[in-house]
Amino acid sequence: MASLTIQASDGSGSFGGYLALPGKTPAAAVLVIQEIFGINKVMRDLCDGFAAQGYLAFSPDLFWRIKPGIDITDQTEAEWQQAFELFQKFDVDKGIEDLKASLTTLRGHEACNGRVGSVGYCLGGKLAFLMATRSDADCNVSYYGVGLLDHIAEVKNIAKPLLMHVAREDGFVPKDQQDEVAAAVAANAHVTLHSYEGQDHAFAREGGAHYDAAAASTANQRTREFFARNLRD
User: Fold this and answer.
1) pLDDT category, 233, cuts 50, 70, 90?
2) By C-alpha distance, which of 212, 204, 230 is closest to 49?
3) How far apart are CA 169 and CA 72, in angstroms?
4) Is 110 buried (19+), middle (13-18) or exposed (0-12) by CB count in 10 A?
5) pTM flag (> 0.85)
6) Tell me, which fold does domain 6-231 have in CATH?
7) Is 155 buried (19+), middle (13-18) or exposed (0-12) by CB count in 10 A?
8) Which of 74, 138, 170, 212 is catalytic?
9) Looking at residue 38, what DSSP letter applies?
């Protein structure tokens, strides 16, 4: 693993994360946006996977303003409680600013060719959606984003490709809210939404309670093809 330090745009400090380098550079980059468990093995493995596909992959520590270095799992009740406490304390707007700072730093990295996309899961799925509405990332992928209805007025700002993976049986996002979001993004030609029938939240998290290998394989293949279309030369 290489190291990367990001300076916060508001001057409040700096933060790091997990950086995985591809075998050949310069290459396009992918911002891998964390769930509520910090930069844990799941996020590191995702970065390594994107690096194996030929991308510079970086997962920034977005909880650094609360407590740096959070690395927990979804395997115990105590860790879930800690994760939800972090989620409640997390400032979404500052998180987006930290992601935009990460985007700028990645674009200028010697191993990057200047093209950068994002992909996020759970909390990160919400943030990837907001990167599509608030940043100039070349493309973005949202896996089962939460709380998107609160930001539906921003759909009109999406000007770059956005791919959305929605768990139809998501325990954190009622179906009526899913339907409202789907109707809103349908009006924007830059957005492609796939709904996965019978799937619950985090169906693509290996080792998770709701992991479904078939649905995860389908979603991840769609993501692979999406990045190939929008980040490759």
Assistant:
1) low
2) 204
3) 25
4) exposed
5) yes
6) Rossmann fold (3.40.50)
7) buried
8) 170
9) B
- Reply yes or no on whether 165 is catalytic: no
Q: What is the rounded distance in angstroms from the CA atom of residue 110 to the CA atom of residue 17?
A: 17
Is the peptide bond preceding residue 161 cis, with omega within 30 degrees of 0? Answer: no
| Phi, psi angle pair for 124, to nearest 5° | -65, -30
Phi, psi dihedral angles at 154 (to 5 degrees): -85, -5
Average pLDDT estimate for 217-222: 98
Tokens in use for 136?
A: 């100039």
Annotated catalytic residue, options 138, 201, 210, 212: 201
* DSSP β-ladder status, 139-143 and 6-7: unpaired
Pair 154, 134: CB distance under 8 Å: yes
Is there a catalytic annotation at residue 201? yes
Burial of 144 (0-12, 13-18, 19+ CB in 10 A): buried
Summarised one tens digit per residue, pLDDT across range 108-160 is 999 999 999 999 999 999 999 999 999 999 999 999 999 999 999 999 999 99
Taking the C-alpha atoms of residue 231 and residue 159, their distance in angstroms, rounded to an integer, is 15
Nearest in space to 30 (alpha carbons), one of 166, 163, 143, 138: 138
Q: Which token pair is 48?
A: 């390594």
pLDDT at res. 46:
98
pLDDT (tens digit, 9 = 90+) per residue, 25-82? 999 999 999 999 999 999 999 999 999 999 999 999 999 999 999 999 999 999 999 9
Domain range list for the chain: 6-231
What the block records as the tokens of 172 is 């954190």
Beta carbons within 10 angstroms of residue 148's beta carbon: 25
Q: Would you state the pLDDT for residue 1?
A: 52
